[in-house]
Automatic annotation (TrEMBL):
This is 16S rRNA (Cytosine967-C5)-methyltransferase. Residues 131-419 form the SAM-dependent MTase RsmB/NOP-type domain. It comes from Salipiger aestuarii. GO terms for biological process: regulation of DNA-templated transcription; RNA methylation. It comes from the Bacteria. Coiled coil: none annotated. It holds the Pfam family Methyltr_RsmB-F. The keyword Transport does not apply. S-adenosyl-L-methionine binds at residues 239-245, 260, 300. InterPro entries: MeTrfase_RsmB-F_NOP2_cat (IPR049560), MeTrfase_RsmB-F_NOP2_dom (IPR001678), NusB-like_sf (IPR035926), NusB_RsmB_TIM44 (IPR006027), RCMT (IPR023267), SAM-dependent_MTases_sf (IPR029063).
Length: 420
């Protein structure tokens, strides 16, 4: 039987997939080979790859003085992982030996063992002190430039600090929020989510098996709250998987139809509903072909997901912004189709987990031009801060907001009202 590669070797493989092949981490880890790995190894490789990607700029800066030219990507990634570990408390002997072993195990890179050994020994000497003085890693230019144009340089630097700090774990309680906070040792946030700064294994937390909560960032939990009382209403959750908003709607007493194009992601909605003891009508299909009549709609449209970089540090490195203009066109088509499904007098919340205004504020401004009878309802929800309100009447959330509490995902949301 072939030996299972070490967690570090798997980490280097993952880094190659993201930085060389442009694949997202969850995609790169979806194949049968990954699923066959012991869960602890898989989790360790995922965590280390995320750590290196979150700190990539720092890893490269501590390596640079010791490299005469950029090594091949595979070797570079071995060095990046070694630099990260050495600069964050890893024992030099073990880290360097393992890096040399990984490079030596591949015939194409065997000859670089000596270089890797020498570079990492130098990093072990001067890296940790250098590391602590380096600024938080900057976003790549493809994303940084448009964000600076939209929000200004200082807010983007604050967002980068939030990305570097990472994200706490937020839970949405099914019913009794205070009980969930007490049982899990979390803090009840003003918007109704429960926040755990140090979580550990999610499925081992109190209340998981009983389905008393689900994992959902505090920002992602707000769009459904903006819809107000949905008791007894027929509500369509248009892009539903994995089901965070479907569960909120069902727990609030709505008659929910959960629609998503992806059968595999829909299976997760079914699993989540079963665990939480909630129910919804499950429909796998394309939003643009869906028919029906609904009192309210949640449109959590597919987007660049640039608001989730705290939890997905691979995202800005795997992509270069390709596909965003297609997503913007799809979001607009989805808004138009959704309005046709909404009963007169109905309300619809549009939202995206994006930091790019073209996927948020601009979508709503343009929808109001295409549909002049449409209005925006003033956003209201417990804990909603006035500073989050945007000019056109929506809500803009950013990762640098609530910095003292541990941040939040970047999100945009607005509630549209169709005349009666
Ligand atoms: C942002 S995610 C939704 C997250 C979900 N609302 C939640 O809170 O858990 C966007 C979803 O849109 C789905 N999607 C993309 N294109 C679609 C289409 N044409 N019709 C239906 N669903 C689509 C994707 O499969 C993905 O699950």
């Amino acid at each position: 039987m072939a030996a299972i590669p070490s967690a570090r070797a798997q980490t280097v493989h993952l880094l190659g997939q993201v930085l060389g092949q442009g694949r997202g981490m969850s995609d790169a880890m979806s194949g049968p080979a990954w699923r066959a790995l012991p869960p602890a190894d898989r989790a360790a490789a995922q965590r280390m790859a995320q750590d290196v990607l979150r700190t990539l700029d720092k890893c490269d800066r501590v390596l640079k003085p010791h490299l005469r030219k950029a090594p091949p990507l595979f070797v570079h990634n071995v060095l990046r992982l070694g630099a990260f570990e050495l600069c964050t408390g890893g024992a030099a002997h073990g880290v360097v030996n393992e890096a040399v072993r990984i490079v030596g195990a591949d015939r194409k890179t065997q000859t670089m063992k000596g270089m890797v050994n020498a570079v990492l020994r130098k990093v072990a000497e001067d890296g940790p002190e250098h590391w602590d003085k380096l600024r938080a890693p900057r976003l790549p230019r493809w994303l940084r430039d448009p964000l600076v144009a939209a929000w200004g340089a200082r807010p983007v630097t604050a967002m980068e600090a939030a990305h570097y700090a990472g994200a706490p774990l937020d839970l949405t309680p099914r019913d009794d929020a205070q009980r969930v906070a007490t049982a899990t040792g979390g803090v009840l946030l003003p918007t109704g989510s429960v926040r755990l700064m140090q979580a550990g294994q999610v499925s081992a937390l109190p209340g998981f098996d009983a389905g008393e909560w689900w994992v959902q960032d505090a920002a992602a939990a707000l769009p459904v709250r903006l819809l107000g009382d949905v008791t007894g209403l027929r509500v369509l959750d248009m892009c539903a998987a994995p089901g965070g908003k479907t569960m909120q709607l069902a727990a609030a007493g709505a008659d929910v139809t959960a629609l998503d194009i992806s059968a595999s992601r829909m299976a997760r909605v079914t699993e989540n509903l079963a665990r939480t003891g909630l129910s919804a009508n499950i429909v796998t299909g394309n939003v643009l072909e869906h028919e029906g009549r609904y009192d309210a709609i949640v449109l959590d449209a597919p987007c660049s997901a640039t608001g989730t970089i705290r939890r997905h540090p691979d995202l800005p490195h795997a992509r270069q912004g390709e596909g965003i203009s297609e997503l913007i066109a799809l979001q607009a088509a989805m808004i138009d189709h959704a309005l046709g499904l909404l009963a007169p007098g109905g309300r619809m919340v549009f939202c995206t987990c994006s930091l790019i205004p073209d996927e948020g504020e601009c979508q709503i401004e343009e929808a109001l031009v295409r549909h002049p009878d449409l209005t925006i309802l003033p956003a209201q929800a417990p804990g909603l801060e006035n500073a989050w309100r945007s000019d056109e009447g929506g809500v803009r959330l950013r990762p640098d907001f609530w910095a003292e509490r541990g941040g939040m995902d970047g999100f945009y949301m607005a509630v549209l009202h169709k005349p009666g």
